[in-house]
Design goal:
Keywords: Signal. It holds the Pfam family GO-like_E_set. The protein is built from five helices and 48 strands. The protein is mainly beta. Strands 41-48-47-43-45-46-42 form a seven-stranded mixed β-sheet, with no helix packed on it. A hairpin with a 2-residue loop joins strand 45 and strand 46. Helix 1 packs across helix 2.
Length: 649
């Protein structure tokens, strides 16, 4: 019998479309036939093997109702699970109800579990520690109040104590202070004011007043209690020396907008016990901070808003990992905007890419450069185009990390600007005098773009929007971007892949999974599709399978050590040794606000053997920070294995 020839792609497409149109019409009889046919064409096309081999495939993840959360932060743990932190999830009602949430997702069986969340980690900072725990510090102590909603004038009251005797003084919540005109103001929380200190100066004893700050709200509504300039306030109920030594001072009391206030709690999330463990508190309250590890294993907390919504003026601090406590770092005073994009380089310096999330000065601290955290020196890196549009941009250490190249992608104007840029620029930080040079433009101007390092030395870029929080852009009410593309560093080109089906903008994340797929979460649009009503947080989850997953059988890692030292060789067994072309250690992501200081892909030297591969881990801690990594073996077609977890010491 003569064998049947395989139908041509065109014939298969025509037959498949006919069947899909009929089925679609039967299932959705009340919808226009043209719309159903269009969807059928798209569904058939994106599922063709030839298409998936070049464009990949997006799929929706079914999330049980009880586990749908507002994903503000996400991190891949060395157990293979994804930690999804919402905290209050940018929801005032949840904050006031103290309803804070964290969910764990296991991509191996699509199972979800709830994790008890002790405080509001919404807009905290985080990074992985050498033992694989996730350090989470800061968060939200108070929500913003828009100017239109401020009924009672308020301000930061500095309570002063000029008496060195009697120890600290405690004032309970609701304590009343009065202005010279008799207006009354009550403090929002209990405050402890230290005693004054006696100091010797020039042979004389001087007294330095103790002080503490607290929010104070006018008792009366309206503008009458507004005090626009610095003034002193008396504390009700005090008499004699107390009335003279204890008083309040406020720079201003107004009905202006009140920004989010930062928290100072700090935790280590343990992937094994799956719970948060309290550490010592931060020395400063921080909202929107960046946390980044150093070569010695300690962590720096950089920038953020304090408990009164003020940008911290360069006060950074250090987490002593071995002691599980934070200490001030006055020797590292340096100003950055909130959520600065920081990358640890091979020589131990930290590169500030210029990416940030916007709070703070629109000029100070915005210059990219290399920060020497041993000497607190800063070497600017010039050449960045569209420098005023770095807010909500993203930056990534391009693979392999040995190349020491950082790319900045997209971004927008200061504040709620409708402007955005398609610019990418690349800095080669191995150069003696590094500077940014132009990279290829993105297909469209983009804020909030996720950039994910893949094991084949490429970078997936996905999501984002052209307008602020997915809103107005060039006359359109919504501006979410659905195009995705893969950047090839060696050729310096973007190649289009399949479009996503869910918009991702502010508060969105994308993370590489151990099986080589990419999970995308979150999205917090300012408006709905009409542009007239408030937006709804995007709780649907989508997963992208890159083209390399459709190009043949994957290599397999069947054996190998669970830990390896820097500078040492390790052997990993594989039945596919003859086709292994490269080995990569990919550090897992911990991302929020498209800021991810952790992800990097490190090339390993490779020697094939008949039944495995010998790899050598580089020696520099700045190149390969201590911690857990995904080891991928990649074949000669660019197809990666499923990762094997390895701890680098």
């Amino acid at each position: 019998m003569k064998p049947h020839t395989r139908p041509s792609a065109a014939r298969r497409l025509t037959s498949g479309l006919a069947a899909l149109v009929v089925l679609g019409g039967a299932a959705v009889a009340n919808r226009p036939v043209i719309a159903v046919a269009g969807e059928a064409v798209h569904t058939f096309r994106v599922n063709l093997q030839e298409y998936k081999q070049t464009h990949g495939l997006w799929s929706r993840l079914s999330v049980p109702r009880d586990f749908k959360v507002n994903a503000i932060h996400a991190a891949l743990l060395h157990t293979g699970k994804v930690l999804i932190i919402a905290g209050s999830g940018n929801n005032r009602d949840a904050f006031e109800a103290e309803s804070f949430r964290t969910v764990l997702y296991d991509p191996r069986d699509d199972e979800f579990t709830e994790v008890e969340t002790p405080t509001d980690m919404f807009c905290a900072g985080h990074t992985f520690l050498p033992d694989g725990k996730l350090l989470v510090a800061g968060g939200t102590e108070s929500y913003e109040v828009l100017e239109a909603d401020v009924e009672h004038a308020a301000g930061v009251m500095k309570i002063k104590n000029e008496s060195p005797d009697g120890g600290p003084r405690v004032f309970p919540k609701g304590t009343t202070l009065r202005s010279a005109s008799g207006q009354a103001y009550r403090i929002r929380s209990e405050v402890t004011v230290p005693a004054a200190r006696k100091m010797f100066h020039g042979g004389k004893i001087m007294v330095h007043a103790g002080e503490a700050e607290v929010w104070a709200d006018a008792v009366a509504k309206g503008d009458q209690p507004v005090v626009p300039s610095p003034a002193q306030y008396a504390i009700d109920g005090l008499t004699g020396l107390d009335a003279r030594n204890l008083y309040g001072i406020a720079e201003k009391i107004t009905r202006e907008k009140q920004e989010y206030g930062g928290d100072k709690t700090s935790y280590e999330f343990d992937p094994v016990t799956e719970r948060y463990v309290r550490t010592g508190d931060l020395t400063d309250h921080r909202w929107y901070p960046t946390l980044i590890g150093t070569t010695g294993g300690d962590v720096l907390a950089v920038s953020g808003l304090d408990q009164f919504g003020r940008i911290l003026p360069g006060r950074n601090e250090r987490y002593l990992t071995a002691e599980r406590r934070w200490v001030a770092a006055p020797d590292l005073k340096r100003y950055f905007p909130t959520y600065p994009g920081l990358h640890l380089m091979a020589d131990g310096r930290i590169f500030y890419s210029g990416s940030n999330s916007g709070y703070g000065s629109d000029t100070e601290g915005r210059t990219p450069g290399l920060w020497n955290v041993e000497r607190n020196t800063f070497k600017p890196v010039p050449g960045l185009r569209d420098a005023p549009m770095n807010e909500t941009s993203s930056s990534v250490l391009l693979p392999p990390a040995q190349d020491q190249k950082v790319m900045i992608l997209g971004g927008g104007g200061v504040g709620e600007s409708e402007q955005s840029t398609a610019r990418t620029d690349i800095a080669d930080l191995d150069e003696k005098s590094p500077r940014y040079r132009p990279g290829p433009d993105l297909p469209k101007p983009a804020r909030y773009l996720s950039a994910v390092v893949l094991p084949d030395d490429t970078v997936l870029t996905t999501g984002g929007s052209s307008g602020y929080r997915g809103g107005v852009y060039q006359g359109r009410p919504r501006s979410d971007l659905f195009n995705a593309q893969i950047y090839h560093p060696k050729r310096e080109v973007f190649e289009a892949v399949a479009d996503s089906t869910i918009g991702r903008n502010y508060h969105s994340e994308a993370i590489l999974l151990p099986d080589g797929r990419v999970i995308t979460l979150g999205g917090d649009p300012l408006y709905d599709k009409t542009g007239e009503n408030a937006g709804t947080f995007e709780q649907r989850v989508e997963i992208f399978s890159p083209p390399y997953l459709f190009r043949g059988e994957r290599p397999e890692i069947v054996s190998g050590p669970a830990a390896v030292d820097r500078g040492q060789e390790a052997y990993f067994g594989t039945p596919d040794a003859d086709r292994i072309a490269s080995a990569r250690l990919v550090r897992p992501s911990a991302v929020t606000h498209v800021t991810d200081v952790d992800q990097r892909s490190v090339a390993l030297s490779l020697i094939r053997t008949p039944y495995g591969a010998r790899v050598t881990v580089p020696e520099k801690a700045g190149l390969v920070p201590s911690g857990w990594y995904m080891l991928f073996l990649v074949d000669d077609k660019g197809v990666p294995s499923v990762a094997r977890w390895v701890q680098v010491r």
